[in-house]
Specification:
It is a single chain. With 99 residues, the protein is mainly alpha-helical. It contains 4 helices and no strands. It is elongated, with a radius of gyration of 15 Å.
Length: 99
C-alpha cells in the first residue's frame, strides 16, 4: 500500500505544480480559463486519493497522528509534496531492510 501511496503523493505534487505554475498563468495571463478547469479537476482527483491513502496508511501502519498531519500539511505546499514522496520512499526501503 505504501508504494501506491508514494505514487499518489508524487502525482499530487506534480499536479499541484502544474496547477500553480502552468494552468493559473495560462488563465490569468493568456486568458485561457479552461486550463485551470482541467488541471484543477485532475489535481482535485489526486488530492482526494491522497487523503484517502493517507488515512488508510495511518490506520494500517499505526502512524502517529502528527505524522499524518505533517504529510497532509506538506501536500498543501507545492514543493513540499515532493518531500512526502521521498519520505515514503525511505519508509518503504526501511521496511524492505527489516524483512
Amino acid at each position: 500500500m505504501l508504494r501506491i501511496f508514494r505514487q499518489i503523493a508524487l502525482w499530487e505534487a506534480i499536479s499541484t505544480i502544474c496547477l500553480f505554475f502552468i494552468a493559473m498563468p495560462l488563465k490569468y495571463f493568456a486568458g485561457i480559463p479552461e486550463a485551470v478547469k482541467i488541471a484543477g479537476s485532475i489535481h482535485g482527483f489526486f488530492v482526494v486519493i491522497f487523503v484517502v491513502m493517507l488515512i488508510m496508511s495511518t490506520v494500517e501502519y499505526k502512524w502517529p497522528i502528527l505524522k499524518a498531519i505533517k504529510y497532509f500539511l506538506a501536500s498543501l505546499v507545492p514543493i513540499l509534496g515532493f518531500w512526502v514522496e521521498l519520505d515514503l520512499k525511505k519508509e518503504i526501503e526501511g521496511k524492505r531492510q527489516k524483512s
